[in-house]
Structure formats: C-alpha cells, structure tokens
Amino acid sequence: MFLPVFILKAIFQISNGQSLGQKLAKIKVAGEISLSATQILIRNVTALLLIAIPVLNAINVLVIIFGKRKQGIHDLLANTRVVKVAS
Questions:
Q1: How many domains is the chain partitioned into structurally?
Q2: Domain containing 65: what range?
Q3: Torsion angle, CA of 80/57/70/9, rounded to 10 degrees?
Q4: Model confidence, pTM
Q5: CA 86 from chain center: how many Å?
C-alpha cells in the first residue's frame, strides 16, 4: 500500500514539482535551476527516514525553524526548497 503512494507522489513531483497535497496548499518543491528525478528521490527517501525516527524528526523540525532558508535536512541534502505558488 505504501509503495504505490510513494511512487505516485514522486511522479506528481517530477512532472510539476507538486504532490496533490502540495497543490492544495499552493506550494511546490523547486530546485536551484530545475527539479530532477534524482533530487525528488533523495528528498522523499530522506524525508521518509526522518519521519520514521522520532529523534531525527525532532532535529529536522529544529533545522527548519532555526535555519536561514527554512529548509529541512531532506531539502538540504537534495538541494531543493519549498516555494509558494502564485494563485
């Protein structure tokens, strides 16, 4: 059940930088120049590991709160950021 959801999210993000939830929230994942499948894979796998381990998840939240660009560890490793989409 989890793998199909993971794959669908990656497909949506690769195609336009947004999963369905991100589209509803009017945000998207962006790379410095463009967004590659490798960046999406690194970001999503890292985010999954961070969520699965509570201590790492807490550290990730602190990195987001106190970081200059408000990026999580998964964004830093994948060289991505979350941006607002114009309405």
A1: 1
A2: 2-84
A3: 40
A4: 0.82
A5: 19
